[in-house]
Each structure stands twice: as C-alpha cells, then as structure tokens.
Amino acid sequence: MIKLIVGLGNPGAEYEATRHNAGFWLIDQLARMAGATPRVEGRFHGLAARARLWDHDIWLLKPSTFMNRSGLAVVSLARFYKILPDEILVAHDEMDLPAGAVKLKRGGGSGGHNGLKDISAHLSTPDYWRLRIGVGHPRNAGGAGDREEVVNFVLKPPRREEQQAIDEAIDRSMAPLSLLAKGEAERAMMQLHSAK
User: What is a GO molecular function of this protein (predicted)?
Assistant: First the structure.
C-alpha cells in the first residue's frame, strides 16, 4: 500500500518547466484528479496535501528544498505520519529512459540522481518505490553527455514533442499507480511496463 507519493523537482518559477521537475508534474496531475491543493507545510519542508485517490488517503508532497536536499522533506512527513519506506513512492526524472518512457521499481541505487541519493540517506534505506519518468539524455541528441551538459539538459524545458511524450507517460502511469496504491505491485508493474 502506498501512503505517500513524493514528486521531485526544484522550487521556483524558473525551474517549473524544466525536465528536472517531471516529478512535480506527476504530483500536479494527482492533485487535480483528487481535487486537492498542496499547501506550504513548513514542518515538512514542502507543499503537501492529503488526497483521496483510488479509495485511499494518500499524502502528496513536493519538497520545497532543492533537489539534492529532498530527503529532509520526505523523512519529515514520513516520520510524522509513521509511513514506512516501502509505503513511499518517489516520482522523478530519469535520463536513462527516453522521453515518454516510464518505469516502476522498488529499491535499487540512485543512478547518480541527487534527489534519490539524499532520500535514501535520510530514510537510511533505498527500499522505497520509484516511478522513473523518462526525460531523455543529451548524448541521444548528439551531445557528449559530460557533467556540465547533463546539468544544463535537466535544467532546460523539454522540446514540445518531448513534453507531449512525458505528459502521455504520466497519464499512462495513473492506472498502474491505482494498482500499486492497493498493494498490487506485480500487476502495477506488468500493466505499466507492457503499455505502449
């Protein structure tokens, strides 16, 4: 059962439309579906809302810290409401997947993602769910893929066709997330990973 869905991103209008904020876009979609409005919660270092989704009460969280400090928000809310790591889903941008791809997994490494690295450190475990939202990689566009280029890539808005593909991937993830929320993880992964 999922009790907390966290979307990763950077706060501020200048980052709103950037690839790094794909996790925020998922939270915005869930909040619209539930008719919920995430509000500033200082004690949770982010915008939070209790939403009724798929017949379950689920917390939605957008950390207001920068990406590499996301763990503070996650652990604050999770501890307060006694939510275990395996009841947490973190939605984040994933450069190892093309724009429009979306994958669900539990546990694993951070893959160089500073948000995941910080969350794993704060929770003292990597054993939480991740929804990996593909945003593409600069090397796929003929770039070298070095560190500076990667940073510039995730902090820029996707091209129009990439944005459309990312939006469609977020839409496609809704039905599988409803299964995950009910504790049907295998079915959720099968449905999401076989969807085209």
Answer: tRNA binding
